[in-house]
């Protein structure tokens, strides 16, 4: 993963003693597994109960290199209330297991090793049985996960990984979750939520017509579009034009990963038209107006679909 948050001399005998003592101290500090550390922390008792209910204690007790983003008791209390659960016992076990796996990475990532970007969790959503759900970490002004959960304590070392405490349970991200979490998609979100548009938030947060594949233009792509068509801002784009353009970036009923893209592949869209994928010299899209966009980020897996970022807005 990329960046994370941003002399006396002794005798030989004495130095050997110090090194030996330091090694013993390190072993003592990391003798517990991630599960054992959670179990011994009174502020993570709800997480322990959730892990036990979901049957994940053995997973977090085994040898390996995990990163666990651990919600505090207050975070679980907020989660239960927000979702109408009286207690953890009311949360369906299968759903709870997937939710918890969405807090775990299959590698040890210390605080000094994370920066803004996407990583893969251990959770598998309904949109894909082979591609794990993505997590977006934003280190601008702190560390925020999927736009909803802040890291409040870091680098609690275990002998099979590391724990970072978070102040909110990290729900399974939808297309909308990942679009709103990434500051490179603020223009796209503004377009999708314009008052005269269909309820794109509801559509892309749900499961009807899912899974979705969204080719998501970045802020720079939208700025270039406005210059290209001579519009002062997004509000100046006519309703029908904007609606058709946004729908042209969405594929319904398919979770199309980068491994599914083939040269000269024609892709049918939610708008009704289609565009062509080419893979020679990098994955590109040719829209209905023969304009070419590069796919610059691939395989942001959501619970109800997948996102690929592109550097030019497609026009139907």
UniProtKB/TrEMBL annotation:
Family matches, as PANTHER family: FI19380P1, PERIOSTIN-RELATED
Protein's name according to its UniProt entry: Fasciclin domain-containing protein
Location of the FAS1 domain: 31-170, 172-314
Entries under SMART domains matching the protein: FAS1
Pfam families: Fasciclin
InterPro entries for this protein: Adhesion/Biosynth-related, FAS1_dom_sf, FAS1_domain
